[in-house]
Write a structure and sequence with these properties.
Chain lengths: 198, 361, 562
């Protein structure tokens, strides 16, 4: 320990830091979670406080099928990353396509649900507190699904164009983390809106 | 000889001079300090809304707590600021200092532990003292003799309802004086008709927000008769500044008389019948109530006993014929942004209406 | 094998600019840049412009309040003034200036070439800049400058239901909410960038436990930002839904709750004040040791205190709501939680004192501003503790005492440290020293003005003067204090003008700084001033918290103390 410069610095000591893509996605998820928490809190706070109908019990049906679709898309996107990492680009593309398909089914059934609510049950965002909180919470989640679908769709197109290879596995993984997050949020939204809130 | 004397005197004077200067300086300094503290005391005492001049139980217990908190904080301030001053002076760079860097010290666990533990102890003390006052104020047992008043905040004026007594009035709150041996506090049940407001009469109690869709309560117990001032303390729009509060603490006899006056519909002097017609045939009735007439509006203050009040426009304007006339002509003369429109009455009608309102005792 | 870069060897010149000297090229270069240093400087300049604008708004308010029953501005204009002043100072002065310094310094201090996501960085800057513009555009929109346009007048915390369409017709509140929403997106982007940079871009040997404290504090600040700023965005989205789509989140007529907005706002608002103050602490952590010529005292304690403040600050928001009618239990809880923050904050104050203790304190301009900061932050913290005692707050809340408390922190602590940071890092950014003589004038005039204004502002609060009133009655005994308060603003204005003058003149005429004018110890001083666009010719390697100290004092390196 005589001089500073002579302090042995292990040149071969490995200098590893987490990937910035993953760190960035983790930050984004932290921030998004906080946003969702606020919307969920507002939803819970206002359950049963609407001054007029319709009430959730009267109009909401459990979206079981679309939930299954969305949750299983988490598995398919996982395989897409897995295969890309193993350099199996074609297989990865198939899994990606499945993911996009499942996500689209989810969005389509949300659209159908909203159509029914608006035109049959007369529930709009202006109708009462339930309408306001319901459309904004479910809509916020749906907008995240759509954003995810767009990105997954782009990834699929690039893959089909042959511009994707094993070196992109990490980026696809970052995207898949986002998708898992969107799914996890749905579990919360589903529980709060369709189970507790009814 | 005389020259000599003179010299001696001069010498003596010279010798005295520094002394004289000093004592003069000391005196003027003392004078200055006294003057300053006198001035401060005068200025602070002059305010009718000082939180340090409590006249009721809630304000008084807050005052006690604040003195404790102030004393503790002042002590911390003196110690820490003293340390800072000492460090800055003692360890300042002097030209004579050598070029060598001072010894590097990286930390010390004992020292750091001590300045963690001591603040924790201080905070325990502060918290316990505070919690006591929170609970004694918010959960004080409510005496049977307590009066209940409903307070409704409106954009830039206050509505007061006495549900048990059937009285509705505005802007000037009357409550009975509370004798400490036989307390008759007034409980205020508060809500708002529009935006947030806050009810604050510093010498009586701390403030409490007045919020739409939420009911808050607070209590006051002035123990001396008189007028207590305050004002809305939550920003509520353009005229938040002129949403003043006047609380009259009446002796039991005065209060009983006031109740009686308020419960009767106002006398309808024959001389004012023309103004009454003008009032009833204009839009006034959409917004104002005068008991015993067809005017049942609730958007503006109840005018049934307007003339029994000392002020109009929520304490902003002393009530007299001239001011009242100018106010009805265009409220923006006193309160630009107030929610009563300029009524554009003819001069004749204006005089008549003013006359009429002045009879509503 | 020894990869440390000697201080002098790389203090060369940046390669000549590719662009010609035409003004267009320069502007084009700045607009399209993704270099963290340029973005940092743009943040800072933009914040300075807004500081002057919001300062002028403050001056106008002080003119209006100098005497009772004044009619200098109309009530509506006054309400716009304090709304715009508060919003601007918090979102378009405080945040951008701190992000600006962070952007500039963090990569340099950790030996990186740029931020983790340079393009996101540029995006965040431009969206913040746009949102500031949007806020002020409201003055011109609608009825134009005459009648002060439709600038927002709902106060910087915009309590519901005042923001509902019924009470705020027109577009003023829309400008406010959209502008705040956009600026918070920008802030989130920058916070994300800072976290990713500190976690993933450090040079070899720069372990977390060796990062300069400034970087640590920015890291914690950014983490707070994720959890604090997002609720603000969520609340603003709800407000937009209410105002544009007819929702009822805060519509009290339809059963909505005004108190919910308060909770959402302060869940953001309280951590926000720590987001603002932590970077100020960060500057103090760098400046005080260098001018005391001593290592920071208790580095691990400083880091844990910061993290502690971060955590506690999430659970104290309702101390802004002591008067909304919480139950006694909640009042007691938030009193305790709030007071507990005094402990980690006290640790910081004491560690700074201990750093100076036994040192050799040089009173250069950055240091005297830091000493002013220490003193004023102490006072501000203690008035904060008074407000934290809930019953005391029932009296003081929403009075001028609160205004005095928070200006003591925002001006006396944060603005002072920002000034200190300017004097300290300006040489690095421009290659020129700021004038010390003007710096001393700036300091003393500002100190006088500050204390005239904000010391005496406590008194009308104690005498019952609420905030946000455009005028007051003559008989309340507030007039004399308001006169003193207003007179202080004049000194602050002159001082600020001297400062701006100093910034401009020194850029052209200041003494040449050289790479390391303060004989400092962190990595940014190992490269030239201003640094080349690639920051370091060779990626540095560090072995301790003060790499340049090790280099200058090989006989007693920091490394032996880890
Ligand atoms: C950067 C800004 C900043 C900072 C750092 C603080 C720090 C603190 N603030 Fe302040 N505050 C604001 C900005 C800030 N505040 C703003 C902007 C508002 C008003 C918003 C609005 O309404 O518009 C506000 C309002 C505000 C209120 C609400 C008042 C009201 O509206 O009714 C309260 C109440 O508790 C409060 C308390 C505190 C406390 C306890 C601290 C503590 O963190 C202070 C801790 C520091 C110390 C205590 C000093 C050092 C410690 C020691 C020397 C150790 C020994 C001390 C003890 C044991 C006590 N603040
Ligand atoms: C970082 C934050 C910050 C800063 C630095 C300041 C700085 C100042 N503030 Fe501000 N203030 C707030 C944040 C800040 N404020 C907030 C959040 C609010 C609450 C708003 C609300 O209630 O919604 C508030 C509210 C507020 C009020 C209360 C208004 C009210 O409730 O009615 C007042 C009143 O005196 C005030 C005064 C001042 C003054 C005199 C300064 C001075 O320190 C300013 C000094 C700077 C200058 C004076 C600029 C210098 C000008 C030039 C160099 C140009 C000169 C050119 C010409 C004159 C043409 N501020
Ligand atoms: Cu009512 Cu302010
Ligand atoms: Cu706070």
């Amino acid at each position: 320990m005589s001089t500073a410069v002579a302090v042995a610095h292990q040149a071969n000591e490995e200098w590893r830091q987490p990937s910035r893509g993953i760190v960035g996605m983790a930050c984004l998820i932290a921030a998004e979670s906080a946003i969702f928490i606020i919307f969920v809190v507002a939803y819970i706070f206002y359950t049963g406080k609407s001054l007029t109908g319709p009430t959730p019990r009267e109009v909401l049906e459990l979206p079981i099928f679309s939930t299954i679709c969305l949750l299983s898309s988490s598995i398919t996107v996982h395989f897409a990353v897995h295969e890309l990492r193993a350099s199996k680009v074609r297989l990865s593309a198939w899994w990606l396509a499945a993911t996009v398909l499942l996500g689209s089914i989810f969005i389509a059934s949300t659209a159908a649900e909203w159509y029914k609510l608006i035109y049959h049950d007369g529930l709009t965002i202006r109708t009462n507190l339930f309408g306001t909180t319901f459309y904004s919470l479910v809509g916020l989640h749906a907008s995240h699904v759509i954003a995810g679908l767009i990105m997954l769709g782009l990834a699929l197109i690039f893959t089909l164009m042959g511009k994707v290879n094993q070196s992109h596995a990490e980026r696809l993984e970052v995207l898949s983390i986002y998708w898992h997050f969107v799914d996890a949020v749905w579990v919360v939204v589903f529980t709060v809106v369709y189970i507790l809130g009814r | 000889m005389s020259l000599c004397m003179n010299q001696a005197v001069v010498k003596g004077l010279m010798a005295c001079a520094p002394l004289a200067h000093a004592s003069q300086f000391a005196q003027s300094a003392r004078h200055g300090a006294l003057g300053l503290s006198n001035f401060l005391a005068l200025q602070l005492g002059q305010s009718s809304t000082s939180i340090f001049a409590p006249e009721g139980t809630p304000a008084r217990s807050i005052f006690g707590l604040s003195m404790l908190v102030l004393a503790i904080c002042a002590t911390i301030f003196v110690v820490v600021a003293g340390l800072l001053l000492f460090t800055v002076i003692r360890y300042r760079h002097r030209p004579s200092d050598s070029d060598r860097e001072p010894p590097q010290i990286y930390g010390s666990n004992q020292v750091e532990l001590s300045w963690t533990v001591i603040p924790v102890l201080i905070i325990v003390v502060l918290f316990l003292a505070t919690a006591r006052i929170i609970f004694t104020t918010q959960q004080a047992p409510r005496p049977k003799a307590a009066l209940n008043v409903v307070v409704i905040g409106h954009q830039y004026w206050w509505e007061y309802r006495y549900p048990k007594l059937g009285i509705v009035t505005a802007n000037e709150l009357h409550v009975p004086v509370s004798d400490p041996s036989n307390p008759t506090p007034t409980y205020l049940t508060m809500s708002s008709a529009d935006t947030d407001h806050s009810f604050w009469v510093p010498v009586l109690a701390g403030k409490m927000d007045v919020i739409p869709n939420k009911i808050n309560t607070m209590w006051i117990d002035p123990d001396k008769p008189g007028l207590y001032l305050g004002q809305c303390a939550q920003y509520c729009g353009a005229q938040h500044a002129k949403m003043l509060i006047r609380v009259y603490a009446d002796t039991p006899a005065e209060f009983a008389a006031w109740i009686k006056d308020q419960q009767h519909p106002a006398l309808q002097a024959a001389s004012a019948s023309e103004g009454r017609t003008v009032f009833l045939s204009n839009a006034c009735v959409n917004c104002h109530t005068v008991s015993g007439t067809a005017a049942h509006g609730t958007f503006g203050p109840d005018l049934s006993h307007l003339a029994s009040r000392a002020t109009i426009a929520s304490g902003a304007v002393p009530l007299n014929q001239q001011n009242l006339r100018a106010f009805i002509d265009d409220p923006a003369n006193f309160k630009p942004g107030a929610l009563m429109p300029a009524m554009h009455l003819s001069n004749h009608d204006l005089d008549a209406v003013t006359q009429y309102l002045m009879t509503l005792r | 094998m020894v990869t440390q870069t000697p201080v002098t060897s790389i203090a060369g010149h940046a390669p000549a600019s590719q662009h010609g000297s035409r003004a267009f090229d320069v502007v084009y270069d700045w607009i399209t840049t993704v270099d963290h240093k340029k973005i940092g400087i743009m943040y800072i300049v933009y914040a300075l412009i807004f500081l002057v604008i919001a300062g002028i708004e403050a001056l106008l308010m002080r003119v209006q309040l100098a005497v009772p029953n004044n009619t200098f501005v109309s009530p509506q204009s006054f309400n716009r003034l304090f709304t715009m002043h508060g919003t601007t100072m918090v979102f378009f002065v405080g945040m951008p200036i701190l992000f600006g310094f962070g952007n500039y310094l963090i990569p340099l201090m950790i030996g990186a070439r740029d931020m983790a996501f340079p393009r996101l960085n540029a995006f965040s800057f431009w969206i913040s800049a746009f949102s500031g513009f949007l806020l002020y555009f409201s003055y011109f929109a609608g009825s134009g400058l005459y009648g002060a346009g439709t600038a927002p007048d709902v106060g910087w915390f915009a309590y519901a239901p005042l923001t509902a369409r019924v009470f705020s017709p027109g577009h003023s509140t829309d400008y406010w909410t959209l502008s705040v929403l956009l600026s918070s997106i920008g802030s989130l982007g920058t916070a994300l960038n800072i976290v990713a940079t500190t976690l993933s871009m450090r040079c070899p040997g720069m372990k977390l436990s060796r990062m300069p404290l400034l970087v640590w504090l920015y890291f914690v600040t950014s983490c707070i930002a994720f959890i604090a700023i997002s609720p603000l965005s969520a609340a603003q989205i709800m407000l937009v839904i209410d105002r544009y789509l007819g929702g009822h989140f805060f519509d009290t007529q339809a059963g909505g709750s005004a108190v919910l907005w308060m909770h959402f706002f302060w869940i953001f608002g309280h951590p926000e004040v720590y987001i603002l103050v932590l970077p100020a602490f960060a500057f103090a952590n760098e400046i005080i040791p260098v001018f005391s010529r001593k290592a920071i005292f208790g580095y691990p304690a400083m880091v844990s205190a910061t993290v502690g403040i971060g955590f506690i600050s999430m659970g104290v928001w309702a101390h802004h709501m002591f008067t909304v009618g919480l139950g006694p239990g909640a009042n007691a809880f938030f009193t305790l939680a709030t007071m507990v923050i005094a402990v980690p904050t006290g640790i910081k104050i004491f560690n700074w004192l201990a750093t100076m203790w036994g040192g050799n304190i040089h009173f250069s301009t950055p240091m005297i501003f830091s000493i002013g900061f220490l003193f004023q932050f102490l006072v501000a913290g203690l008035t904060g503790v008074m407000l934290a005692a809930a019953p005391f707050d029932w009296q003081l809340g929403n009075s001028y005492f609160v205004v005095a408390h928070f200006h003591y922190v925002l001006v006396g602590a944060i603005l002072f440290m920002i000034f200190a940071a300017f004097y300290y890092w300006y040489p690095k950014m421009t290659g020129r020293m700021l004038s010390e003589r003007l710096g001393k004038w700036h300091f003393w005039l500002f100190v006088i003005g500050f204390h005239l204004t904000f010391d005496f502002m406590h008194i009308p609060g104690i005498l019952g003067m609420p905030r946000r009133i455009y005028t007051y009655e003559a008989d309340r005994g507030w007039a004399i204090w308001n006169m003193i308060v207003s007179s202080g603003a004049i000194f602050q204005t002159i001082a600020t003008l001297i400062f701006v003058y100093n910034l401009v003149v020194s850029y052209f005429k200041g003494a040449v700084a050289g790479p390391d004018p303060w004989d400092a110890w962190t990595l940014e001083w190992s490269t030239s001033s201003p640094p080349p666009s690639y920051n370091f010719a060779k990626t540095p390697t560090v072995e301790s918290r003060r790499p340049l100290w090790d280099l200058k004092h090989p006989e007693e390196p920091d490394t032996q103390y880890e």
